[in-house]
Amino acid sequence: MTEFSEQAMTLTIRKAKVEDSPKLAELMNIAGEGIPAYLWERMVGPDEDVMTFGARRVARTEGGFSYTNAYVATYDGTIAGMLLGYRLPDSDETGPSDEIPSVVRPLVELEALVPGSWYVNAVATDSTFRGQGVGRKLMEWAEHLANASNAKALSLIVAQDNARARKLYEQLGYQVIAQRPIVSFPRCPHTGNWMLMKKAIGPSA
């Protein structure tokens, strides 16, 4: 198990476990601005709760949203936040599939612009622990993982009007390199564009 501890905050970051899946699904939906739940609603059976279905999806070992790609920040064993990320392939020769839902297509198109980068797919803090630096610590851990993977850059996507998150990423050295219009969906909290941000790392940074 890989861990990172901040003694002053008694904060620990560890690899996620399958039993974390219900909390991961909740935090992934927060980080995903409601898109995960919107997509899960389209797949869930008539007698199953959407978030229960989402937890089952997260509990799988395949796919980008698998718990195997996630890390959790904990205070005394309580999950305070989550990081979901991985290194993208060095090339994307296939391009976005026609089967990709329209709300996701702009995100997939932006992701394809940063092959080989370590992609922060989702980062979120539980509402109880916001304002305590959990998100920043998770982003620092993402950079550690990116360096360990020999990636030359990190990348992420954020909504243009999510000023708080953008401010944090800018403070950490991320810069906007591309944008795509947000495709609205029921309960969509944002308008404007999705913004692809990138941070160079390593000796050449």
Automatic annotation (TrEMBL):
Cite the PROSITE patterns for this sequence. GNAT
Report which superkingdom the organism of origin falls in. Bacteria
One MF annotation (Gene Ontology) recorded for this entry: acyltransferase activity, transferring groups other than amino-acyl groups
Gene3D superfamilies named in the record:
3.40.630.30
InterPro entries per the UniProt record, alphabetical: Acyl_CoA_acyltransferase, Bact_Acetyltransf, GNAT_dom
Q: Which GO terms describe its cellular component?
A: ribosome
- Please state every residue range assigned to the domain named N-acetyltransferase: 11-202
**What keywords does the record list, in alphabetical order?**
Acyltransferase, Ribonucleoprotein, Ribosomal protein, Transferase
PANTHER family noted in UniProt: AMINOALKYLPHOSPHONATE N-ACETYLTRANSFERASE-RELATED, AMINOALKYLPHOSPHONATE N-ACETYLTRANSFERASE-RELATED-RELATED
Kindly provide the name given to this protein in its UniProt entry.
Answer: Ribosomal protein S18 acetylase RimI
